C-alpha cells in the first residue's frame, strides 16, 4: 500500500525556498504516494520511472483541457485560461495529435539549426551591452540585461516579432505564467493574466493578419499556412493561443535555465574553472544544470482510466501531481542525486517532460543555454556575485528575478 503524505508543505515559505529536502522525504516513502484527503491531488508521483510512465501514457493520463475545467471553477470564463486550453500544451488526443502534427511541419530541426547564427549574434550583442554597463566595476543585473532578453530575442527572430516589441512582452508573459503556479490562480493573478491575455491576443492577431497579407520566412507565417491531414488550417483561436504559449514557454523557461545555471557555477568555483578551461564540456554542464535545478518543477495529469503506477493502483478520475524536479533527483535513478556532477553517466532527465507532450522547444533551449553560457564565460574572465542571489519562491517557472554581478 502506498504511503499517505501531505502536500501542504509545498505552499510553505520554507519548502518554496528549498523544496529538495521535501522531495527527498517523498523518495523515502517510495516512487508514488497517496495524498491526504482534502487536497486537489489524489496522488503524487516523484520516482523517475513512475513519472516517466505517467508522462508517456497519454491515453490514460490526460493533461487538463477544456473538458476538465470544472476542476478549477475560477478558470472558467477567463480569457487567459481560454488561451491555454486552445494550445498544443493543454489539449489531448485527437485534438493534440492534430495540432502537434501541424507544429511538426513548421517547428523543424532545420529551422532550429538555422537559428544558431542568430543565437550567437544576439548573444554577442547582449554581451557588448553588458560590458558597457559593467565598465568601471558597476553592478549589472544579469536577469534583466541578458537572461530575459536573450530568449525573448531568439523567439522574436523565430516567430517574426519585431525587436521593439519584445520588452513589452515580458511582464505580460510573467502575468500569464503566474496562474500556472501551485495556488497561483488567485483573483488578483487571474485578473492580471486575463488583461495580459487580451493584450497579447490582440497583438498576435495583428501580426497574423499581416503575415496573411505579406508572408515571410518566420514561424508565424508557417503556422498561418500549416494545414492538418484534411487540409484545414488552425482556427483563429488555436493559432493565437499557440503563438502566445510558444512564446511564453520558450521565453521564461530558458531565462531561468540561464540564470539558474550561472548561479550554480558561481557557487561552485572548481566546476566553473573546469568549464572555462574546456568549453567542449558545455553540453554536459547544461544537461546537469537542467537536471539539478529544472525551471519547471511539476506537471499535472488526470487519470482517465484505472491504472497502476509502480505497483500503486490509481483509480480513474484522480488528479496526479508529477514532480519533475523530484524525479530528476531520484536516488534510484541518479547516484548522489543532490550533487552537481556534469560527469554523471545517467544523463536522461524529465526536464522537458515526456511522451506526447514532450517540450517542442527542447532543442532550442539547449542551444540557447549552451551558446549563452559558453560565450558569456569566454567574454568575461572574472564574473562575481555583487549581491546574494536570493532564493526563488516558485515551483512552476522557478528562477531568479534579479542576479546582480560584477564583470571584468
In angstroms, what is the radius of gyration?
21 Å
* The number of domains: 1
Summarize the biggest pleated sheet.
6 strands, mixed
Please give the CATH class: Mainly Alpha
- Poorly predicted residue ranges: none
Q: What is the tally of helical segments?
A: 17
- With strands numbered from the N-terminus, the spatial order across the biggest sheet is 1-2-3-9-6-4
Q: Report the count of strand segments.
A: 11
CATH architecture: Orthogonal Bundle
Q: What is the assigned CATH homologous superfamily?
A: Cytochrome P450
Output the structural class. alpha+beta
Order of helices and strands: EHHEEHEHHHHEHHHHHHHHEEEEHHEE
Proportion in β-strands: 5-15%
The rounded distance between the terminal residues' Cα atoms is 57 Å
* CATH-derived topology: Cytochrome p450
Structural shape: globular
What would the average pLDDT be, to the nearest integer?
A: 93
What is the helical fraction, as a range of percent?
40-55%
InterPro entries: Cyt_P450 (IPR001128), Cyt_P450_B (IPR002397), Cyt_P450_CS (IPR017972), Cyt_P450_sf (IPR036396)
Protein name: Cytochrome P450
Keywords: Heme, Iron, Metal-binding, Monooxygenase, Oxidoreductase
GO molecular function: heme binding; iron ion binding; monooxygenase activity; oxidoreductase activity, acting on paired donors, with incorporation or reduction of molecular oxygen
Amino acid at each position: 500500500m502506498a504511503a499517505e503524505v501531505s502536500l501542504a508543505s509545498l505552499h510553505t515559505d520554507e519548502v518554496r525556498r528549498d523544496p529538495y529536502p521535501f522531495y527527498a522525504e517523498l523518495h523515502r516513502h517510495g516512487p508514488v504516494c497517496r495524498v491526504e484527503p482534502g487536497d486537489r491531488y489524489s496522488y503524487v508521483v516523484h520516482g523517475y520511472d513512475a513519472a516517466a510512465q505517467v508522462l508517456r501514457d497519454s491515453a490514460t493520463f490526460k493533461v487538463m483541457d477544456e473538458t476538465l475545467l470544472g476542476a478549477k471553477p475560477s478558470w472558467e470564463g477567463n480569457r487567459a485560461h481560454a488561451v491555454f486550453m486552445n494550445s498544443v500544451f493543454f489539449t489531448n488526443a485527437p485534438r493534440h495529435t492534430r495540432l502537434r502534427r501541424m507544429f511538426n511541419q513548421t517547428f523543424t530541426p532545420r529551422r532550429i539549426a538555422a537559428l544558431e547564427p542568430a543565437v550567437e549574434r544576439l548573444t554577442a550583442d547582449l554581451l557588448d551591452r553588458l560590458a558597457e554597463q559593467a565598465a568601471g566595476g558597476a553592478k549589472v543585473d544579469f536577469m534583466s540585461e541578458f537572461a530575459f532578453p536573450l530568449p525573448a530575442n531568439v523567439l522574436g527572430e523565430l516567430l517574426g516579432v519585431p525587436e521593439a516589441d519584445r520588452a513589452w512582452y515580458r511582464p505580460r508573459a510573467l502575468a500569464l505564467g503566474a496562474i500556472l503556479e501551485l495556488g497561483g490562480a488567485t483573483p488578483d493573478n487571474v485578473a492580471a493574466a486575463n488583461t495580459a491575455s487580451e493584450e497579447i491576443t490582440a497583438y498576435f492577431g495583428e501580426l497574423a493578419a499581416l503575415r496573411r497579407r505579406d508572408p515571410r520566412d518566420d514561424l508565424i507565417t508557417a503556422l498561418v499556412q500549416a494545414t492538418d491531414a484534411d487540409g484545414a488550417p488552425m482556427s483563429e483561436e488555436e493559432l493565437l493561443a499557440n503563438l502566445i504559449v510558444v512564446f511564453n514557454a520558450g521565453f521564461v523557461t530558458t531565462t531561468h535555465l540561464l540564470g539558474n545555471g550561472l548561479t550554480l557555477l558561481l557557487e561552485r568555483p572548481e566546476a566553473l574553472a573546469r568549464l572555462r578551461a574546456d568549453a567542449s564540456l558545455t553540453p554536459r554542464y547544461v544537461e546537469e544544470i537542467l537536471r539539478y535545478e529544472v525551471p519547471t518543477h511539476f506537471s499535472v495529469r488526470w487519470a482517465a482510466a484505472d491504472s497502476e503506477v509502480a505497483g500503486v493502483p490509481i483509480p480513474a478520475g484522480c488528479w496526479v501531481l508529477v514532480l519533475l524536479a523530484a524525479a530528476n533527483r531520484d536516488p534510484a535513478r541518479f547516484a548522489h542525486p543532490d550533487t552537481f556532477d556534469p560527469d554523471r553517466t545517467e544523463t536522461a532527465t524529465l526536464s522537458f517532460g515526456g511522451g506526447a507532450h514532450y517540450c517542442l522547444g527542447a532543442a532550442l533551449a539547449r542551444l540557447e543555454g549552451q551558446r549563452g553560457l559558453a560565450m558569456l564565460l569566454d567574454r568575461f574572465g572574472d564574473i562575481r556575485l555583487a549581491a546574494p542571489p536570493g532564493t526563488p519562491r516558485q515551483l512552476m517557472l522557478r528562477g531568479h528575478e534579479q542576479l546582480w554581478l560584477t564583470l571584468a
